[in-house]
Design brief:
- There is one protein chain.
- By secondary structure, the protein is an all-alpha fold.
- The chain has a two-stranded antiparallel sheet with strand order 1-2.
- The radius of gyration is 22 Å and the shape is globular.
- The N terminus is likely disordered.
- It is found in: Endomembrane system.
- It is a multi-pass membrane protein.
- This is MFS transporter.
Length: 486
């Protein structure tokens, strides 16, 4: 039994909630709750992957930003390989079983435990988790996060008509960035600023909340438990209010057997699905570059400009309105000019602003123009120099362009995939998305190791952006036929 084709059903023809007799395509509460899952899980990216924990791991736990960047990249490379092998299989099995929420519950439980365990990542890896253990936990969290995307994204056609997928996808991304903004503000004013003593504001507590001790870097380590509790708490709306397709009645053994058979049939029918395959390869490449742009921004800023925890959190908060705006712009642009054109525009602009960002050092702007190092332009205690301000300006633009691509890419996948095989195809989509972990991260790791320069290693991802754009030009926006397993 396959899930009903809800995305293209005529008005009133969709499956209805058994409890409330409500068409899920018209259930705004369920749709907004679906977007709230992005609100729940995105702070993990901001707090752990990009702005706080990753730089802390590289600079303080490992003690060498270049070596730390290599280890962090290696952990994500291994995670990406695991996802590449397992996500399409897991998606095919889920399609045979029907329900997605039980999978989300299991994944969120793993992420909550993993995030909370990062509290024991001690400075210099002394007295707590070893560097290897932290790398393993980081890999598990990456795998779990991508699995959550498979099941979350595959719920979209069941709760929205095709014409509404673009705005709902954009809303979800915007909600995620709002969640990241609020979590960052919480950590900034509750922990980072009181720990740094860099600003005297009347509403700031004298000391970090909960008795956090900055001398043992508890103000950096706390973001792990904060992320874990946040995702557990704000996952509740999607579990309570969002429509989930009914169970098919297939048991685990039958689902595994039928799911593997369906996946094999899909592979055998690769020629018929060549347009989808071309899109996934294109996304594999350009997404590698765009996600790496964000993933390494905190490590690069901490290594090049020596920003501390408070500066990195301020950086994230400054970018948040642009990421939120990018979500709404992405939904609008997708509807106005189509998913493909929106993605291409975002890729080309990302290349431009990426070059602008890496051209900044304390002594130079735009590669060639010398400036007086550390000359302050204003009295605010952070981001006082011209290179820092120009670096931030380029990242403001990147926050918009990368978010547009994420929104339009998800919508494009919904448009291309057979609706009754949505989880399997979003498993393949997860593979293309996590190529960042074995191509993007791997390329950054290799280039950093060869050049012994963070910015040179970081710049290598532009090659992936341009390669992905070139392949995307050949993709057609049309839905693939369903593949029947034999």
């Amino acid at each position: 039994m396959n899930a009903p084709d809800l995305a293209d059903a005529p008005d009133g023809a969709a499956v209805r909630h058994s409890s409330a007799n409500v068409n899920p395509h018209d259930d705004r509460r369920g749709q907004y709750a679906w977007g709230m899952f992005e609100f729940a899980r995105t702070p993990y990216i901001g707090l752990v992957v990009v702005f706080v924990f990753a730089p802390y791991f590289a600079n303080t736990v490992v003690g060498d930003p270049v070596r730390g960047q290599e280890i962090w990249g290696l952990a994500n490379t291994v995670a990406g390989l695991c996802i590449g092998v397992s996500a399409p299989v897991l998606g095919a099995i889920a399609d045979r079983m029907g329900r997605r929420k039980l999978w989300l519950i299991a994944i969120v439980a793993i992420m909550t435990a993993g995030c909370c365990s990062l509290w024991f990542a001690m400075p210099g890896a002394k007295g707590g988790l070893s560097i290897a253990a932290i790398a393993v936990i980081a890999a598990i969290l990456t795998i779990s996060f991508e699995y959550s995307q498979v099941f979350h994204n595959s719920m979209l056609p069941a709760i929205a008509r095709t014409r509404d997928v673009g705005w709902l996808s954009g809303y979800g991304v915007a909600a995620g960035n709002i969640g990241n903004f609020l979590a960052m503000v919480l950590v900034l004013f509750g922990v980072a600023l009181p720990a740094s003593g860099g600003m005297d504001l009347p509403f700031l507590p004298d000391k970090p909340v909960l008795g956090i001790d900055p001398l043992t870097f508890e103000h950096s380590r706390i973001v792990g438990p904060v992320s874990g509790i946040w995702i557990a708490l704000f996952t509740l709306p999607i579990l309570l209010w969002t429509y989930d397709v009914p169970a098919t009645g297939a048991g685990p053994r039958q689902a595994i057997k039928e799911g593997l058979a369906q996946l094999a049939a899909t592979i055998r029918a690769a020629k018929k699905l060549s347009n989808v395959g071309l899109y996934l390869i294109a996304r594999m490449l350009y997404n590698d570059g765009q996600v790496a742009i964000l993933a390494y921004s905190g490590i690069i800023a901490a290594g090049v400009f020596k920003w501390d925890l408070t500066a990195l959190i301020f950086f994230s908060i400054i970018l948040s309105p642009f990421s939120i705006g990018g979500g709404f712009i992405g939904g609008w642009l997708d509807k106005a000019i189509g998913s493909k054109c929106a993605i291409l525009i975002s890729i080309l602009l990302s290349c431009l602003f990426m070059l602008g960002a890496v051209s900044m050092t304390p002594e130079h702007v735009f590669f060639f123009f010398s400036v007086e190092p550390f000359r302050p332009l204003w009295r605010f205690p952070y981001f006082q120099t011209l290179p820092e301000l120009l670096f931030i300006a380029n990242y403001m633009a990147l926050a918009v362009t990368v978010t547009i691509a994420f929104c339009a890419s998800r919508t494009m996948m919904v448009k291309l995939s057979p609706v009754s095989m949505m989880s399997q195809f979003f498993g393949l989509y997860a593979l293309s998305g996590t190529a960042t972990a074995f191509l993007g991260h791997g390329l950054v790791t290799l280039a950093t190791g060869v050049s012994h320069n963070q910015q040179a290693g970081f710049s290598s991802v532009i090659v992936l952006l341009l390669a992905g754009a070139a392949l995307l030009l050949r993709v057609r926006e049309e839905r693939a036929d369903r593949v029947v397993s034999g």
